[in-house]
Amino acid sequence: MRIAPxxxxxxxxxxxxxxxxxxxxxxxxxxxxxxxxIAGAVSFVRYARRHxxxxxxxxxxPFDIFVPGLESWRVDLAVGLTRELDSLAPPGAVxxxxxxxxxxxxxxPELAAVxxxxxxSAGLAIYGRLDPIANTPDSVRVQMIxxxxxxxxxxxxxxxxxxxxxxxxxxxxxAEQVRQDYRYPRD
Length: 187
Known about the structure:
Layout: H1 7-50, E1 54-60, E2 64-65, H2 73-87, E3 92-93, H3 96-102, H4 109-119, E4 122-133, E5 136-148, E6 154-163, H5 170-181
Parallel strand pairs: 1-3, 1-4, 2-4
Antiparallel strand pairs: 4-5, 5-6
Helix pairs in contact: 2-5
């Protein structure tokens, strides 16, 4: 008597050889996904390190001027303060050309100054304003804040009267106050 060959064993062998390439393909695709994830993580870490806020770099926003006749000082004070900060190293200051490109004034300019600092990788945001003093036309009220752009903490604040005739000396005085009142972290 002759025993019929077992066809189920042949079918099983055929199926297992067909499944083998698909298993290999699945393993290869899984390995590719893992490698792409690692490459993406490395790329992100390198990007984050390169674009980390520099605590020794300040972004000086244009000053708000609420004194009639002094509107031209809006940019002049920011330019002067930027120049003075650069001359009193550290800190450095973001150039006013970059500030002009990225400045987006809002209803809350102090918040816009922080956003300006973050968009320029500066660790400090500086915002100031001039207000009139009642019954004193020859002086203005100067307010300036220096904010940590990463944590949003107020670091330096000034609020003082200043003679209108001495406005050209104001950027130097503000830069010296920033230098005196804020201790820059050492790397």
